[in-house]
Amino acid sequence: MKALLLKRLLQLITVVWGVGTLTFVLMRSLPGDMAYRIAASRYGQDNVNSDAAALVREELGLNQHPLEAYWHWLTDLLQFNLGNSMVSGLPVIESVQHMLGHSMLLAFAGLMVSILIAIPLGLLSAWRGNPLDSVLMGLSSAIRAMPVFVIGVLFVLLFALHLGWFPVAGYGTFAHLVLPAVTLALSLAAVSNRVVRDSAKQTFRAAFYQFSKVKGLSTWQTFQRHGVRNIAVPVVAFFGIQLVSMIEGIVMIESLFSWPGIGHGLAHAIFARDIPVIQGAALAMGVVFVLLNTLVDLLCLWIDPRGVEQ
Fold first, then answer.
1. Which of 67, 71, 129, 292 is most buried by its number of CB atoms within 10 A?
2. What is the architecture of the domain spanning 93-303?
């Protein structure tokens, strides 16, 4: 347990430094005048000229040498200071906390809905076999082949514009959460239900599972005592791997549905060349990814304590 936590701590430090450094280098490497883009975001595209860009460049220190700017960023990071937004002037930590809260709400809702879809369908597919298995697997493959934003657009066209059941985009009510959460859930469930199905099939065919029926246990007792934990370990481990798809999906879904989360804020910050916000958002997603993977590892050890010895 201590080795696992120490390993994750080292991974967290590496991710924070690596993501921050890579973001810094990439944003500084983009073509165009950064000061002009920031001035356009502040004052409007029609009100920007070379004098306004020069003032922004001087105010924000954009004429510093890249190594000097990187050193200042690194020393601020060691003091847990993410700086202020170049556009709004607000502390980055406050903006990231606000956006991260909305993203966590969307991610949690999408994950819960995907679990409600994937686990029953995966177990049913493993238990019933063909032809239901083939139909569900074909449907899963078709959904997985579509990018998540395509699923979102189809939902908007059908449920928002055609039927008028839900708002097209925005935030504020439960109805605004439904379409983005279901879009994210379907993209996740299209893969995770196959993992549930494969894990369940392997467990149902195992000798220990068949022997428990010979002992006289009912189907439900056999599943409860010998099936749940053995099926759960690879499924929970896969959810840790699927966090990458979840983060990727959240960025696109938030932009599509104008959800005020960290992906939506990151997209706007990139267009505005707001480097502190970009770095803060990227760091937040990296930290959340490591923490959630640690939680998944601990959950797997709780389900199967034999993993501690491995």
1. 292
2. Orthogonal Bundle (1.10)
Find how far residue 132's CA is from the centre of its chain. 31
Tokens, residue 243: 């966090």
Residue 204 burial (CB count, 10 A): 17
Contact criterion met (CB below 8 Å) for 75 and 58: no
Q: What's 308's DSSP letter?
A: G
Q: Which residue spans of the chain are classified as CATH 1.10.3720.10?
A: 93-303
pLDDT recorded at residue 191: 84
Distance CA 180, CA 249 (A): 10
Angle, vertex CA 119, rays to CA 259 and CA 288, nearest 5: 40
228, containing H or E segment: helix 228-241
Cα-only R_g, the chain:
24
More confident residue, 52 or 264: 264
**Encoding tokens for residue 6?**
């120490």
- Which has the closest alpha carbon to 207: 226, 193, 190, 194? 226
End-to-end CA distance of the chain: 11
Please give the model's pTM, rounded to 2 decimal places.
0.75
270-289 pLDDT tens trace = 777 777 888 888 888 888 87
Residues 193, 286, 173, CA angle at the centre, nearest 5°? 65
For residue 308, what pLDDT is reported?
45
Q: Nearest Cα to 280, choosing from 94, 55, 5?
A: 94
In the structure encoding, which two tokens stand for residue 150, read together? Answer: 């395509």
β partners of residue 157: none
User: Given a cut of 50, is residue 37 above it in pLDDT?
Assistant: yes
